[in-house]
Write a structure and sequence with these properties.
heterodimer, A: about 400 residues, alpha/beta, GMP Synthetase, Chain A, domain 3, four-stranded mixed β-sheet, about 35% helix, B: about 375 residues, mainly alpha, Amino acid/polyamine transporter I, about 0% strand, globular
Chain lengths: ~400, ~375
């Protein structure tokens, strides 16, 4: 008797736990959101009253226009009809995903997100930009390794671009960003990096800038930075200063520096970089000494000119050092005088290594940065010259 | 030959303590520490881990002396029958409420990251049932279960730690002493409780084969966990910086979410962490439920502890569903640690220790 009762109990329990699977979802029922372009919906502003009764969502101003790039995982292999682009206007991003579900046959899934594009207009609007940042951080499923860029120009234009070597434009863009490993001009940023940078620096971040290049068949390019300060767009940083930004923030992986030596333009490929900062005592203003050490190869010289010589290399080395030093100095001056905000990590360094000093200047850090005296010390080493002597 | 007497060896005790401590704290610890002392969080993680050794010492000294009486028995011996029982009741309540809150935090997190449509009740209920099945069998089978999962836990944990390493900025571990040292002391309050779970030592002594070794193995278990927790706090800080870490609820999950395996053949590693985390929580729940049953049995003068476990099922289930929102839940958890936690982990061991010094006869005399 006892056994039977136990058995019945177990059977009932099994029924209870096997019949309900609330989260079952097949791959065939999903559509992956691989990219999203978030823009302000400028047209809607005037049409609807700002103060709605609150009873219905459609009374609220639809301030966002989000374009989702979606991929159907079960059709990717076939190529055709696997991808879909849909634009949705909405009050906020979460609502946009809900709206998206009313026009796709599948469940939109954020987990495979690869690229988030924020338009310039959006980033200029501080409140909306903060909303989007919060949406990204508060979503538990979103792929926080997705890349993020700021886009200047007309979003419509971006959709018309042919993705060239890739199937999708999002892969095209993330591919360019991946190349920051091999070039010092393009930069890379993930959602996690954006959120951490903004949070830890009170709304300061340098985000890769995506642009449409007009020449030869219209394509994308990323070689500038959008500087964000106080949660909104401050300025664009020109390509020539990007390398200094990357060096100072230890984001530099690989890059080419061309120097002029005896009338020859010699490319020097830098593959190791190290930078160190010291704060020097004394004086009214902060005084920094920065040491940058680079290691690299000479990629080109001149035919029939002997490069296989210690003295020549020493000379070139000297030249490289001077040239890099000048570049760093000029760029720092640009950051101090034109941009006027500390994107070079001096504040971060001072906070971490000279906390008591930082606390003194913290309130008005940008001013202290502008006045700071920064000197550079560059050491370059040429390691290899390729397989030929002359 | 291992005698069949439901007693555990020293190694098993270490594993038991290790698995009990390793629980919900691992996901939330970096945030609560970073909130207190910013980038010094990792120092606080070490400090608060080591502070607990003091209480382990008290618990072990008392436990050793009264090893055959058990927790309630020792209290009764020291403070008389009635007063001793009254002193034991809050500890019982602590174990029950602790189990309930652990289950709820577990369910909330699983719901957030894995099973968003599954009702909370159905995440909690199967886990309670399974925990009861194991806890009913007694301390020795539970310890064996813990032993069997420990290698898996350590392996995956170490793997995840390595995966999280790239793309981190370890200068974020500075400045260590940007906040006043007073903050470190107040921070110990929330930090030290992240290591709670070893209070199971209060009740476990009657089941030890070698009570005199308990202090050594439990301290080792605690030190290993301190090491794990410190590494996780360091990695979280290095990945996010102190302010971002402090603003997250489950920074450890975010840490794993922000990590990738080079080559990218596996994505979304947080699934692996969450799956593993089920075991962390399960072992904690088994252990605290067992603790509650032992104290409950002692208070009610029941020799057979098996049935006492089941009595707590409805209570734990209902308690685990009381908190309205996550915010309230974490508040409840804080309240629990501040009052009952302080009582169980700090006050009771200390008064028992003092009483045991005064008690010349001691527990050992009974054996002679």
């Amino acid at each position: 008797m006892k056994h039977k009762r136990g058995l019945i109990c177990i059977l009932i329990l099994t029924l209870l736990f096997t019949s309900g699977c609330w989260d079952k979802i097949e791959l065939e029922q999903r559509v992956f959101i691989t990219a999203m372009l978030i823009d302000l919906n400028e047209e809607d502003k005037e049409n609807k009253p700002i103060g709605s009764t609150g009873a219905f969502n459609d009374d609220m101003p639809e301030k966002l226009k989000i374009t989702f790039g979606m991929a159907n995982p079960s059709k990717i292999q076939e190529g055709e009809n696997a991808f879909l682009i849909r634009s949705v206007t909405s009050v906020n991003a979460t609502k946009a995903v809900e709206k998206l579900a009313t026009m796709t046959s599948r469940v939109p899934f954020y987990g495979q997100l690869r690229l988030v594009i924020l338009t310039e207009r959006l980033v200029r609007n501080k409140e909306t930009f903060k909303e989007i940042l919060d949406h990204i951080e508060r979503d538990a499923v979103i792929n926080s390794l997705a890349k993020v860029v700021i886009f200047t120009g007309n979003p419509e234009e971006a959709f018309e671009i042919d993705p060239k070597l890739e199937i999708l434009n999002s892969v095209y863009v993330t591919g360019i960003m991946d190349n920051s490993k091999i070039t010092s001009e393009t930069t890379d940023m993930t959602l996690t990096e954006l959120l951490s940078s903004i949070r830890n620096n009170d709304g300061l971040a340098a985000v890769p800038l995506l642009e449409v290049r007009p020449q030869d068949g219209r394509g994308f390019e990323i070689n500038r930075l959008a500087l964000i300060k106080d949660y909104s767009l401050l300025d664009y940083l020109d390509t020539r200063y990007v390398r200094t930004y990357k060096i100072m923030n230890r984001k530099f992986k690989n890059g080419k520096k061309v120097i002029n030596y005896k009338g020859l333009e010699i490319p020097f490929v830098i593959y190791t970089m190290n930078r160190e900062i010291w704060l020097e005592e004394g004086g009214d203003n902060l005084k920094y000494r920065v040491k940058v050490e680079v290691e690299g190869d000479i990629k080109e010289y001149s035919f029939e000119e002997n490069l296989f010589e210690t003295n020549t290399l020493k000379d070139i080395q000297q030249k490289i050092q001077e040239s890099i030093k000048m570049e760093l100095q000029e760029s720092t001056r640009y950051f101090q005088n034109v941009i006027g905000a500390d994107y070079l990590g001096f504040g971060d360094y001072t906070n971490k290594y000279h906390n008591s000093v930082y606390k003194k200047y913290k309130e008005n850090w940008d001013e202290s940065f502008k006045k700071a005296e920064i000197s550079y010390d560059v050491k370059a080493d040429i390691r290899r010259i390729g397989p030929s002597k002359k | 030959m291992t005698p069949n007497d439901d007693k555990i060896s020293s190694i098993q005790l270490g594993v038991f303590i290790y698995n009990t401590i390793l629980g919900v704290g691992i996901l939330t610890l970096p945030a609560s520490l970073a909130k207190e002392v910013e980038a010094g969080a990792w120092v606080l993680a070490i400090l608060s881990g080591l502070v607990n050794i003091i209480f382990i010492y008290f618990m072990c000294k008392v436990g050793e002396k009264y090893s055959e009486y058990g927790f309630a028995g020792a209290l009764r011996r020291q403070f008389g029958k009635v007063f001793g029982t009254i002193l034991a009741i809050p500890v019982l309540v602590y174990f029950v409420v602790f189990t309930a809150i652990v289950l709820r935090i577990f369910a909330e997190t699983i719901k957030l990251y894995l099973l968003s449509n599954t009702p909370l009740e159905f995440i909690i209920f199967p886990l309670i049932i399974l925990a009861i099945v194991l806890a009913r069998t007694g301390v020795e089978p539970s310890a064996r279960f813990f032993e069997s999962v420990t290698p898996l836990i350590i392996l995956i944990l170490v793997f995840l730690m390595f995966v999280a390493l790239p793309k981190s900025d370890f200068t974020n571990l500075r400045p260590v002493f940007s906040v006043s040292p007073v903050k470190y002391i107040t921070g110990l309050k929330s930090g030290a409780f992240a290591y709670s779970g070893y209070e199971i030592l209060l009740i476990i002594f009657p089941f030890l084969r070698k009570p005199e070794k308990a202090f050594k193995v439990s301290s080792i278990a605690l030190i290993i966990i301190t090491l794990f927790y410190t590494i996780i706090v360091m990695e979280t800080l290095a990945k996010f910086g102190s302010r971002e870490t402090a603003s997250l609820i489950y920074p450890t999950v975010n840490l794993i979410k922000a990590s990738e395996i080079p080559g990218g053949f596996i994505e979304r590693l947080e699934g692996l962490l969450m799956a593993l985390w089920v075991i962390f929580v399960f072992t904690t729940v088994v252990s605290t439920m067992y603790g509650a049953s032992v104290i409950g049995g002692d208070i009610l003068n029941q020799k057979e502890k098996k049935h006492i476990v089941s009595i707590f099922l409805p209570l734990i289930y209902i308690l685990s569903l009381t908190g309205e929102s996550v915010v309230e839940l974490f508040k409840m958890s804080d309240t629990l640690t501040i009052y009952l936690g302080t009582y169980t982990i700090i006050i009771v061991p200390i008064i028992m220790f003092i009483a045991s010094l005064l008690d010349r006869k001691g527990g050992k005399k009974g054996e002679a």
